[in-house]
Amino acid sequence: MKMIHSKSFFTFLLLLILLSVAGFSGCIGGSDTSGNNTANSSGSGFGSESVTVWSSSDYEGFTDQTVLAKGRQFVNSSVTIQTGETVRIWNREDQAHYDHLYHSEDGAFKDIRVNALDSTYLVFNKPGTYKIDLYNPDTNSFYGTTGNTVLTVTVTKP
Which InterPro entries does the record match to this protein (predicted)? Predict the structure, then answer.
């Protein structure tokens, strides 16, 4: 075998390996663009029987109510929807390091960490009143009583 063929073979093999790695990299680990550390990015939501949580990449465009969160507080303190409807909580902080951690007081879902300018979507499957606290994700503690740091979601039957 000549040196040119051997060099071509190794170049081809290296190119094949690089393409394989690049092709499979999207399949391993997923891409969690919402900052949601507990998100299932396989295209299905997670949560509980009462509330289903979706990352923004999975659920974009299916919103019945949007709640903005900026300045480490909710712009609205409450929202009323019907069962099966969706609330989008949109972190409107403009600094990249201003993540939010949304905590369900009654354990309807696991804590959701959302990066600045990203969203999470909550589908409420059962009627009731749900309280969502805005936590500091770095200390995993409540931001306090200044401003609207608790969002009350009232879910009624259709």
Answer: Cupredoxin
